[in-house]
Amino acid sequence: MKRKFSVLTVVMSLVIIAGVDYQQEASAQSVNVIPTFRVDPDWPQVPEQWRLGDVSSVAIDAAGNAWLLHRPRTLPPEEAHMAAPAVIGFDSEGQFLNAWGGDGEGYEWPQREHGLHIDYQDHAWLGGNNCPARNLPGLEPLFDDQLLKFTLDGEFVMQIGRANMSRGNADGENLHEPADAFVHQPTNEIFVADGYGNHRVAVYDADSGEFKRMWGAFSNAPVDQDDCPNVPVDVQPGPGPQQFSIVHAIRISNDGIVYVADRENRRVQVFTLAGEFIDQIVWPDALFARNLALSPDPEQQFLYVGGGSGIRVFDRQTLEVLTTIEGDGVIGPGHQIQTDSEGNIYIAATGSGYQRLLFTGLVPR
What we know:
Elements: E1 5-6, H1 22-28, E2 33-39, E3 54-60, E4 66-71, E5 87-90, E6 96-100, E7 113-118, E8 123-128, E9 147-151, E10 156-160, E11 178-184, E12 189-194, E13 200-205, E14 211-215, E15 247-252, E16 258-262, E17 267-271, E18 277-282, E19 288-294, E20 302-307, E21 310-315, E22 321-326, E23 336-339, E24 345-348, E25 354-364
Parallel strand pairs: 1-22
Antiparallel strand pairs: 2-25, 3-4, 4-5, 5-6, 7-8, 8-9, 9-10, 11-12, 12-13, 13-14, 15-16, 16-17, 17-18, 19-20, 20-21, 21-22, 23-24, 24-25
């Protein structure tokens, strides 16, 4: 039986004291331990004059500050005048830092904000997943086919792709409703989970925006199947289709392994940096692979994947499921998730809100 673990810390003599350094503790333990968490009820403190719409993503900068990406246009009409800028940052104590984002000169802000990533140089990358057939109020009938790069002060740096210009999965110049991105520092390449309209991983130079390579599920060449809006997938037992459905999240480990969340097909596929397929996790029983995060210890022992009613914790080396973080105030699996250097987990859950789970220690399985 697959064991589930409550977010509340178990009171037991072998529990490791909360508040210790995550990296030292995780390095000292084997995979016979599991991480524990508790909800932080006081995080964050949003300025009183502002309201947040659906929070779609969260990212952590080099100083440990958390930045939320939200959708101001999802606020009800009576609160629209109180909308905070789309990107809003908080320090480790949850105090407000800065906010920016929205339409501006020289770039095309996405119609429907989706993913946010902060790279090793503290650049913010963001994209959207609007398609015209959604017919959402307040949005222009445009596909979000671009990825934007900013400083954390909101200064525009670069745009990859143009709105409404995608020519499909073979197009290296444009994206098509990109869901997430991750910059790999050793190669300075940005890996894009592309996404809702395309069904691929697309890789670009993070400075020039030059297209480098792409791949689909099982390392296959991606093919076009552009459903706008997206249609449900009939999940069957087995390894799953030869093509990605919604490529919803992407992370790269310290040892250069690429993890890709294929949400509607309920699987996480694992690749080399060159796009060679290695392995996969399939969980057909419930909506799975909503998001991805890695634990911050040097070995990154734990892979976190949103699925079902919570966040599943896997041994990153064996891909064995270890436990599930759920219940006791956890808002669920989330839309996108992230970890900080202390091992805390941040959840952006669109219509369900946003939350920080404080790491409280490792306990025996």
